Amino acid sequence: MMKPDSEAALAEIVKSANAPLSVKGGGTRGMRAEGADLSVSALKGISLYEPGALTLVAQAGTPIEEIDRALSAEGQRLAFEPMDHRTLLGTKGAPTIGGVMAANISGPRRIQGGAARDHALGVRFVDGTGAIVKNGGRVMKNVTGYDLVKLMAGAHGTLGVLTEVSMKVLPIPETQATLMLRNLPDAGAVAAMSLAMGSPFEVSGAAHCAKIDKQTPVTLLRVEGFEASVKYRISALKDLLADTGAEMEVACRDMSSMLWQSVRDVCEMENLEGDVWRVSCKPSDAAELAERSGARGWYFDWGGGLIWIRTAPGEDLRTRLGVFDGHATLVRADAATRAALRVFHPQAAGLEKLAAGLRARFDPRGILNRGLMGPVLAESV
Amino acid sequence: MEMPVPDATVLARKSRVVERLQQVLPKDAVIHDERETRAYECDALTAYKCPPMAAVLPTTTKEVSAVLRICHEEGVPVVPRGAGTSLAGGALPTADCVILGVAKMNDVIETNYSDRYIRVQTGRTNLSVTGAVEEDGFFYAPDPSSQLACAIAGNIAMNSGGAHCLKYGVTTNNLMGVTMVMMDGEVVEIGGAHMDAAGLDLLGLVCGSEGQLGVVTEATLRILPKPEGARPVLMGFDDNEVAGACVSDIIKAGVLPVAIEFMDRPCIEATEAFAKAGYPMCEALLIVEVEGSDAEIDHQLSLIMDIARRHNPVELRESKSAEESAKIWLGRKSAFGAMGQINDYMCLDGTIPVSSLPFVLRRIGEMSKEFGLKVGNVFHAGDGNMHPLILFDANKPGDLELCEAFGAEILKLCVEAGGCLTGEHGVGIEKRDLMEFQYAPEDLEAQMAVKDVFDPKWLLNPAKVFPLSVSQARRDVPIAAE
After folding, report:
1. Is residue B186 part of a domain?
2. Residue B46 is part of a domain; what is its CATH number?
3. At what angle do helices B61-74 and B14-24 cross, to 10 degrees?
């Protein structure tokens, strides 16, 4: 495993490479590509943190844990609530900010606060030719030139190796609470979540765990803010959802926090056998898609906009779902299944052509995470 | 401002191009008479004017596709145009171009409250998107000052912001999907009513690309439930630095206002003379607005005022009613008009880290004396987006050039302070030649590589964003008709 300790050394490795490189941060998210491992985990450290400006700049290999620690000392956090994949995938290592951004990892708060890419303000990266490129900056509003920050967030290292990320951070609210509704069927739960999210009460998490074995379904709605505010909004949500007839209870601060960590990390599927998929869809399609999947189990996050689905090993969920507004990503499966079904949803020809064109320009030799997000280029080394 | 020399071979083919465009569009949708094309000679950066060779006003994605296919085949540059409100010259034509205006495309295609989105044709104005959903308790969050007139197409091209983006983000954070026509006429669908991209984040790439990658004809926009209420507090300080420290303390305290607006003394004076909003005469004025129920607003405002009191404000005025709120906002909202009463002005748009505010304002004050031009500062303080308004006299020979030189120095100062050239207006032609100040050659090369992929012939809005000398080799490739 190559672990360059400077951006310049990393650029040199990429420039002189004559074979594919498997780019990674902490290597906790189960993304594998052919070739020698190139890790950014030795590019570490927070280079700038201004709590009063809500901005933080860190080297790509900085562990999330270190960033969380620095932020919480100032009462702030990464508002996009990145998932920790170690529970679900059984991986070891330390998740890094570079990995989080490269994979655009966002958790339950995505519905209110946006995705990782929405909090990324600037990047530095080494492209496939070894050139060092910067884009964006460290200010919240910046439309100077094309937004390659968004392009790099979610490119999974296929267009360049991130070396530094600057991001927007936000205050940790005084407290939180979660309203739990019992026994709603899937479609009813999505309707209840939509009603709540269409209200002014600022729901920052909306998840629904379907019936599993003897466990009864439960729908979770989180609000965060000042103590009095949280109390008021929970009570307003109770009134709003009274017509659902669901039995309701409230999980306060610590309990609420635990519940959402479990939703975020897909803990429910940790010890259950089968492949795990992540389906992004229109919330109102969620119940029907879940039903159509014929899967072993599922639950909804993002008010139904995200379905975690557990299928039999090797089963092609995409075929079962057919055409829908959204996409399915294979998150947990063995190597053979990942190779056969591919991790990412195939795209329309027009978009695939653009993506291939971008790969050909940013990584003309096809050496960065080859084949991870699309077909291998003909002229690859 | 230097613009590329019009391609004589394109101009020579004008009648053929017009004829072909007329075959795919209704007759009145193709404007080619020299008296009429003048209507499209500039956008809101009125210092620069150039009538286009022709202008077209299609009504459907299919028509846009047909127009682009023809222009692609004929090698004719295309300048897309929303409502023409760009302050950066984003829609400034070249003499050999076809203006593709989306103004007639303003339908609402779908509203979906349970999934919280609206799908519109992109000629629709920003404010009328909110207009379509507000009776049902929703709104579209990005709120550029020109929202009454500006089109969603332009908002997407420039990734427009507004006063409330501290809480709600800018266009790119509220855009879920687009239908886009490529320069060769191919139609692509990016994103949709779901969240996050399936592959590369092409949506994020297209948003803010200033109409250089494709023409966006339809957009799926996130809509949000309207807050129960909103009220501001106005505070005045005797020192810019203290006002800056107060902003920082508010943010650090964990209150997240929807807007923090800042005005400096020259701006307060001009505004007061014009709108008589009853603002205190002081060095710096802040308007901080929060949202929620009445009780929630009271609570947040009391926290904010406690923080403000620690900074010895000369004035602290909490709004208790809609009427008082309107009065507090009146001056801020008339600031541009007030400055315009005094003289012509140029509005800049650099962003700086909030912590550099005192330094940057001090330097702007010094430079104002050096250049002999007055400047007032309006500022989205929560996110560091400055709007220095430089006053000049357009009728005085040399004053515009002097003003531009001053503006360039201010923008360089923003970059030096750790910020950027433009926070929400875009680069256009206005800041094109300053790009090398913010970006190294390889940074610009990476951006231009994107354009190479989307528009290999460099026909879409080609003379914008990148310094002409930097993009020259790409634009100079002969593009004779096929």
Report:
1. yes
2. 3.30.43.10
3. 160
Structural domain ending residue among the three candidates B69, B103, B137: B103
Whether chain A has a CB inside 8 Å of the CB on B441: the answer is no
Interchain CB distance below 8 Å, A144 and B447: no
CATH of domain A267-341: 3.30.70
Flag whether residue A199 sits within 8 Å of chain B, measured between CB atoms.
yes
Q: What is the CATH number of the domain that holds B318?
A: 3.30.70.2190
Q: Is the model more confident about B311 or about A211?
A: B311
- Number of domains comprising chain B: 4
Fold adopted by A7-171: 3.30.465
**Within this chain, do residues B238 and B329 fall inside the same structural domain, yes or no?**
yes
Taking the Cβ of residue A146 and every Cβ of chain B, the question of whether any pair is shorter than 8 Å is answered with: yes
pLDDT recorded at residue A211: 63
Please write the tens of the pLDDT for every residue from B162-188. 888 889 999 999 999 999 999 999 999
The pLDDT of residue B472 is: 93
**A121, two tokens:** 């303000």
For B95-147, how does the pLDDT look when each residue is reduced to its tens digit (9 = 90+)?
Answer: 999 999 999 999 999 999 999 999 999 999 999 999 999 999 999 999 998 89
> Which pLDDT belongs to residue B125?
97
Q: Average pLDDT in the B397-414 region? A: 95
Angle between helices B357-371 and B240-252 (to 10 degrees): 150
B248 in reach of chain A (CB within 8 A): yes
User: Is A323's Cβ below 8 Å from some Cβ in B?
Assistant: no
- Mean pLDDT score of chain B, rounded to an integer? 94
Residue ending a domain, choose from B103, B125, B150:
B103
Q: Does A280 touch chain B (CB under 8 A)?
A: yes
- CA-wise closest residue to A96 among A31, A42, A138, A32: A42
Residue ranges of B 149-168 with Cβ closer than 8 A to chain A:
158-159, 161, 165-166
Task: Establish if B473 belongs to a structural domain.
Answer: no
Q: What is the pTM of this model?
A: 0.96
CA of B314 to nearest chain A CA: how many angstroms apart? 23
Pick from A56, A139, A229, A369 the residue to mutate for testing the B interface (most B CBs within 10 Å): A139
CB contact under 8 A, A154 and B445: no
- Read off the pLDDT band of A278 (50, 70, 90): very high
Chain B touched by A90 (CB under 8 Å): no
Interface contact B188-A138, CB threshold 8 A: no
Whole-number pLDDT of residue B479: 57
Owning domain of residue B201: 108-225
The CATH number assigned to the domain with range A175-264 reads: 3.30.70.260
CA dist list (Å): A304 to A40, A148, B97, B114: 35, 29, 46, 11
Q: What is the mean pLDDT of residues A33-44?
A: 95
The reply to whether A175-264 and A267-341 are identical in fold is yes
Distance CA B191, CA B206 (A): 11
3-state DSSP assignment of residue A256: helix
